[in-house]
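Kindly review these tokens for lecture notes.

. . .
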Amino acid sequence: MRMPKTMLPSFLLYCYIGAITPGPANLCSLSTALRFGKGIALRQWRGLFTGFFLASMVSVGITYFLGTMLNQYVGIFAWVGAGYILWMAWHMLRPSGSLSEKNVDMPCFRTGLLVQLTNVKIMVFCLTALASYVLPYSGSFWVLLGVGLFLPFTGPIANLVWLFAGASLQRLFVNHRRAVDIVMAASLMLCAVSLVWPH
């Protein structure tokens, strides 16, 4: 059994919002591009991509193990996932300070890799995507692996958006921060409802 087609828009919206919203990797990409230029930022981005890929593969293994060993508790993950999504929406609506730069001497592949391997946001993002959108419909390792291979093309692509948009994206968030936050938070709430609403 596969994920119903009606869940696909919610899944893709979850991936988009989870990837594009500010987080350690996105802010690191923005900061590096502004401080050191595109070339060095792209070198660091390769580390970000590799770290995201590794986190996604570990999430596939964890989700597969939990799905086969604790299949009767899979429904709980949908509620946990919905709770996490609502927490993201609430966090997005809270007032926040200005973007702060990390003190990095010279960003490189290793810097990007370490940012992602310590990035709790992507670990929870991958586990929530797999456990809430895939596991209720299929416990197949190959289906989980397929989605796990797709996930690294969400966050790291968003890192590139932040990297290349740089100062213009920063101005957008500064000038229209509240409106953007409200739209994204409302979209996240719709994702959360679709996870637990009876189909």
Remarks:
- The chain has eight helices and no strands.
- The CA atoms of residues 3 and 134 lie 6 Å apart.
- Helices lie at 8-20, 24-36, 38-69, 74-93, 109-117, 120-134, 141-150, 155-196.
- The longest helix spans residues 155-196.
